[in-house]
Amino acid sequence: MTEHTGLAARKKAAREAAFLRRELAHRSAGAQAAHLTRWIAEHPGRAVAGYMPMRSEIDPLPAMTAAAATARVGVPVIEAAGQPLRFREWRPGCALKRGHFGADIPVSGDWITPGIVIVPLVAFDRHGHRLGYGGGFYDRTLERLRAAGPVTAVGFAFAAQEAEEIPIEPTDQPLDLVITESGIVVPT
């Protein structure tokens, strides 16, 4: 077994265990976005990229709605495999259509460049590493955004999605912090 194959198998096993933990947390979730909403409010005017929750993902929409009162808010649009995401402006109640992988995206709107990116994830650790769905979209996107200027990558997850260690590779982009329904985790 090559080193790459071993890493892929470890990521697959970590992803499966994390999906199960997330599903269990989703079933018992209460006020999920309270800490995220407060944190974004402390950074007024910065453009925010959120996401439209799917399956058992923690729901950032309350925080995105609050942010839209003072800043531009966008959601990710997948334009092609292997490419970074782009963010189309979103407003509460805007017309949506189904995008790639079943995520809703605005029917129309300007493209925005966010200063804050709320990143969905499958699992995270205390070092700011995240396990995504395996497509690399957020890694490519954060790399591109960071090369152009300051951006804060905020992982948003249930506390139950925390793992002891996430297997990483050189292309994985770290999170600046993780916000859960229980509080804020600053990487060590």
From TrEMBL:
InterPro entries assigned: FTHF_cligase, FTHF_cligase-like_sf, NagB/RpiA_transferase-like
Catalysed reactions, as listed in the record: (6S)-5-formyl-5,6,7,8-tetrahydrofolate + ATP = (6R)-5,10-methenyltetrahydrofolate + ADP + phosphate
Instruction: Give the record's keywords alphabetically.
Output: ATP-binding, Ligase, Magnesium, Metal-binding, Nucleotide-binding
MF GO annotations? 5-formyltetrahydrofolate cyclo-ligase activity; ATP binding; metal ion binding
User: What SUPFAM superfamilies does this protein map onto?
Assistant: NagB/RpiA/CoA transferase-like
EC number, UniProt record: 6.3.3.2
| Protein known as | 5-formyltetrahydrofolate cyclo-ligase
